[in-house]
Amino acid sequence: MSGAGGEHRAIEPAEQAAAMMTAAGMPRMPARVMMALVAAPGEGYTAADLADRLGVSAAAVSGAVRYLQRVHFIRRRAVPGDRRDRYELVPEVFYGSMTSNTALYEHSADLMDRIADETSDDAVAQERAAEMAAFFRFLAERMPRLIDEWEHRRSAGA
C-alpha cells in the first residue's frame, strides 16, 4: 500500500464514519470501503490495497466495490503502465446523491398521502403519515436551496 502518514492516521475516523453510515442503513463493508477511499491517497487504492487496509478478504472487497459502483459512489480507474485498476470516489459523490434525492422525497410524500387517505379510520396513523408527508415535502422544497447555498459557499472558498 502506498501513501503518506496522513492516510494511516485517518484509519480510525474512517472506521468511525463507516460505523455511522452502517447505523444509518448502508451495508457495513461498502461503508468501510467508501470511507477508506475518502482517506485514500490521490491515486486511489487497488482492490488489494483496500483488502490490506481493512484487514478483509479480496471477496469482501469485491462485493463492496460492486455495490458502490452500482450506486455510483465509486469508480474504477485504469492507470497507464499498471495492470491493476484503482478505485476512487466519484467527485462530489455526497453532493450528487443529495441532489438526486429530491424526486425521491416528492414520491415519498405522495405515498405518505396515500397512506393517510387509506388510514382515515385511525386518526393516529393518519396524523403520522401526514407528518411524514409534510417532512418529505419540506426536504424536497429545501434541498434545491441548500444546494444553491452550498455552491455559493464553495465558490466563495469558505
UniProtKB/TrEMBL annotation:
Residues 25-84 form the HTH marR-type domain. Gene3D superfamilies: Winged helix-like DNA-binding domain superfamily/Winged helix DNA-binding domain (1.10.10.10). Keywords: DNA-binding, Transcription, Transcription regulation. InterPro entries: HTH-GbsR_regulator, HTH_MarR-typ, WH-like_DNA-bd_sf, WH_DNA-bd_sf. It holds the Pfam family MarR_2. This is GbsR/MarR family transcriptional regulator. It comes from Microbacterium fluvii. The lineage of its organism: Bacteria, Bacillati, Actinomycetota, Actinomycetes, Micrococcales.
